[in-house]
Sequence to fold (114 residues):
Amino acid sequence: QVQVVESGGGLVQPGGSLRLSCVVSAKFFRELAVGWYRQAPGHPRDLVASIFSSGTTNYADSVKGRFAISRDDDQNTVYLQMSSLKPEDTAVYYCRAFGPSGGWGQGTQVTVSS
Fold:
């Protein structure tokens, strides 16, 4: 099973930006699809964005136009660039490597507050 490690969370004011990073220790990383999820207290864990090996991306309606997912296959890393952040974006953000040998990271807290 792969190891997945997220970083980059923190406290940001509304309208601000953050970039999350997800490092996946997988030999065949470039073949993996990877997704970012988030979970706020009392809510289910929802898919925010995903990126496939081809570079194709998908986004939840709530973040379209504000978030951008990208990958660097040489660094085994997937990024989530978050802009125009809103208080409702506050959540623990999780990275997931899909597939039979995939796995979840431990999560990184993002708090949007003035």
